[in-house]
Amino acid sequence: MATPTLSRHALDGVLGPIAIDVRAADRAASLPAVVVLPGFKGFKAWGMFPPLAERLARAGFVVASVDVSGAGVDEAGRFAFPERFGHNTYTAELDDVRRVLDALAAGRLDTAPPRAIGMLGHSRGGGMAILHAAHDGRIRALVTWAAIGHAGRWPSATVADWRARGVLDVVNARTGEVLPLYPDVLDDLEAHRERLDIGAAAAAVTVPWLLVHGDADEAVPIAEAEALHAARPDAELLRLAGGGHTFGARHPWAGSTPALDDAMTRSTAWFARHLT
After folding, report:
1. Is residue 48 domain-resident?
2. Does residue 76 form part of some domain?
3. pTM for the predicted model, two decimal places
């Protein structure tokens, strides 16, 4: 397989442009594709995602790494659009990812239409991937890394204060900057509770599914992975001993770890088995 090339694309999204990095070793052939979804405060240029995309592309996949319109970041990963971040919602993300899938399937991202599509999501992106895999027949294989098991992540006291103030302060631990999060996401959850039921969606997933989760995850407890697995017992659950939320990866990228290497190896093999 030839060395992958990188192209950058933008689509109209719910809150602004959707930014997509596409890596492919052959843009004329109909290859299997993988869509990569980072999580909350994550972005396609964060730490482990470019090496992951490069590895998948070298294995023969077209890889589309996505920053949804509400991610709030520019191409360098700076939170240059805090208002978009603040007004982001789950349904906005779902609609943005659908637009990416439409463009990818139609060959509008500088590659031929893929012969099969898989999806890999991390953290909140994992929850979004589950919702897509349950309801979009174009997804033929699923991998989730440290996926959230439910969309309502905030304690009732936090929600009450959030609504009273009209904003929740979200700290970017890496930079120290404070980002606004408005009640839009709460309103969205109330209005679309069934559509955003990740547990119910897990039970409805029928495609091959690999769940990867560190048993020392400090952000999303492994119990959430176990609950998702209980909803779909024939999925495969890979527990990474000592693995944290990003399997030891950092931003800026400082190299891989044994847990991340294991996650990448098993995920690449999963897609090779089920998409090719």
Report:
1. yes
2. yes
3. 0.98
